[in-house]
Specification:
- The chain has 19 helices and 17 strands.
- It is an alpha/beta fold.
- The protein has three domains: 118 residues, Beta-Lactamase, CATH 3.30.450.20; 161 residues, Histidine kinase-like ATPase, C-terminal domain (Heat Shock Protein 90), CATH 3.30.565.10; 118 residues, Response regulator (Rossmann fold, 3-Layer(aba) Sandwich), CATH 3.40.50.2300.
- The chain has a five-stranded antiparallel beta sheet, sandwiched between helices.
- Helix 8 packs antiparallel against helix 9 and helix 11 packs antiparallel against helix 14.
- It is globular, with a radius of gyration of 29 Å.
């Protein structure tokens, strides 16, 4: 089929298909290749020009060819697209593809034919096989990998939906490209933004903690400063979620009481939705426990409530409720992603504008939003969906125009021991005993705040604004410095290299590193040197005291 024989629109689409990194090909009703792109030819090890005119049975073994031809026959008979899974190659060279087979329009070809678009899912298949071989004892190690697999699944669904829309309207290709560019930029910037934000939170939480120490237990200002501490701590949790979004930092699940978590958020949620919207809270009295990263649970609740606020707009009502929910085997068969078992259910309802069927079908797609430009990223509900699936739960939604919306999030109930009672942490008391500390931090505000915290803990503090200044001070101190407290990412030299050179000047020097970046990103950047005590920013008085007690009690330098 020569390019010159094609209509202009068909030639345009052929040019787009030729450049695709996904294998794409066309088959006649006899199973003969009418068109293949370069990616398909590379996948089967043949030149595209050699493939045109050949039949399926000339390229694949009989059983594999029959499987592919059966899909071609079904699509041409019913006129409906079909998705099949196929494999190419053997042994270590074996690769898996998911292929969408759809009828080609008569204006493009003169005889019945189908267009096939494939997506390489080899990595997902290999990961699924590896996961199947693991036992329950590896649950924590599997959690991070499961998140990646679910993200790959969502990415695949999104790309297939985008490709379908692109066939109907070519301008969607440009919109998708621009969105991908924007999110790539977000990914690059998120880590740095979170680092700077953690530095500012160190200043806020550090000074608020010191202010509490100066107030009597009856001082009315204590309540306000405690609110600052609570808001700062919650902001730090959300910043950690930003780091996880940008750098895939592993989550840290623990046993939680959902009712207690939501109750701790109510004041913040009421501020988020505004005074004109009524918020009601109906917790179940006998609610079971969950095992989930607390930041992820916060994200679920906050995103659903903000979504409800936007649906209600000026005035209305939002309700949050919880209950235990048993999913029976017959019921699970009718629920997507739901397995039979006992769940803890969160329900968020609103009496807002509601959604029609088309909007409802796309509600969880990344970047889909009904808000005007600049008011929404389209990531809120897709984030909720991803978190729920990562934690082996399911989410259901009911809505209709003018009837409001109800989201039901069901997460597996944890039947083991309940949440450990967290004893109220006493205010950190001085224990430094005049130990001399060299503090190295390039941010002036963070350095000054951390120096005040160290002084309160009883340490004698010498400050340095960077690594080179720190090395000069160490040489002058002639062994007088006992502990090095240093930021990790600084201009000219990272904190681990500074610690190595400092210990060469003063053997036995104890070190504590501070960072606002994700721990796994630090390990990738620094490599094998990234060892030793590491304190996550924002730095609070209690966290700093706990870290330094560990450093000073540890043997060696």
């Amino acid at each position: 089929m020569a390019v010159d024989d094609l209509p202009e629109v068909a030639r345009l689409w052929r040019a787009l298909l030729d450049d695709s990194s996904d294998p794409i090909f066309a088959l006649s009703d006899e199973g003969r290749y009418l068109y293949v792109n370069a990616a398909f030819g590379a996948g089967v090890g043949l030149d595209p020009a050699e493939l045109v005119g050949r039949r399926l049975w000339d390229v694949f073994p009989p059983a594999a060819a029959d499987h592919r031809f059966a899909a071609v026959r079904d699509v041409l008979t019913t006129g409906q697209s079909k998705v099949i899974e196929v494999a190419v190659g053997e042994g270590a060279q074996r690769r898996w593809f998911v292929t969408t087979v759809k009828p080609m329009p008569s204006e493009v070809v003169s005889r019945p034919a189908v267009l096939c678009i494939s997506k390489d899912i080899t990595q997902r298949k290999l990961a699924e096989e590896a996961l199947a071989a693991l036992n329950e004892g590896l649950e924590r190690r599997v959690a991070a990998r499961t998140a990646e697999l679910e993200a790959a699944n969502e990415q695949l669904r999104w790309e297939m939906a985008e490709r379908k829309r692109a066939e109907a309207q070519s301008s969607a290709l440009e919109a998708r490209f621009r969105q991908a560019q924007k999110m790539e930029a977000v990914g690059r910037l998120a880590g740095g933004v979170a680092h700077d934000y953690n530095n500012m939170l160190s200043v806020i939480l550090g000074n608020a903690g010191l202010a509490l120490l100066e107030l009597s237990s009856s001082d009315p200002l204590r309540e306000r400063i405690n609110e600052i501490m609570a808001a700062g701590t919650r902001s730090a949790d959300l910043t950690r979620q930003l780091l996880a979004f940008a750098r895939q930092e592993a989550v840290a699940p623990r046993v939680l009481d959902m009712n207690a978590t939501i109750e701790s958020m109510l004041k913040l949620l009421r501020r988020l939705i505004g005074e004109s919207i009524e918020l009601s809270w109906q917790p179940a009295a006998d609610l079971g426990h969950l095992k989930i990263d607390p930041v992820q649970l916060n994200q679920i609740v906050a995103n659903l409530v903000v979504n409800a606020r936007d649906a209600v707009s000026d005035a209305g009502h939002i309700s949050i409720s919880t209950r235990n929910h048993q999913v029976e085997p017959l019921e699970s068969a009718g629920l997507a992603d739901a397995a039979a078992g006992t769940y803890v259910e969160l329900v968020v309802r609103d009496d807002g504008v509601g959604m029609d069927a088309d909007t409802l079908a796309q509600a969880f797609e990344p970047f889909f939003t009904t808000k005007e430009a600049g008011r929404g990223t389209g990531l809120g509900l897709s984030t909720v969906y991803g978190i729920v699936r990562q934690n082996r739960g399911y989410i259901a939604v009911q809505s209709a125009p003018g009837q409001g919306t109800e989201f039901r999030v069901c997460l597996p109930r944890h039947d083991g021991p309940g949440p450990a009672e967290a004893p109220e942490a006493p205010l950190a008391a001085a224990f430094g005993g005049e130990t001399r500390v060299l503090l190295v931090e390039d941010s002036t505000m963070v350095r000054e705040t951390t120096a005040r915290l160290l002084a309160h803990l009883g340490f004698r503090v010498t400050e340095a604004a960077g690594p080179e200044e720190a090395l000069v001070l160490l040489e002058r101190a002639a062994g007088g410095i006992e502990v090095l407290v240093t930021d990790v990412v600084m201009p000219g030299m990272h904190g681990f290299e500074l610690a190595r050179r400092a210990k060469a000047l003063q053997p036995g020097l104890k070190t504590l590193h501070m960072t606002g970046y994700a721990f796994d990103l630090i390990e990738r950047r620094v490599g094998p040197q990234a060892r030793g005590a590491l304190l996550r920013k924002p730095v609070t008085l209690e966290a700093l005291a706990e870290a330094l007690r560990g450093v000073m009690a540890a043997p060696g330098g």
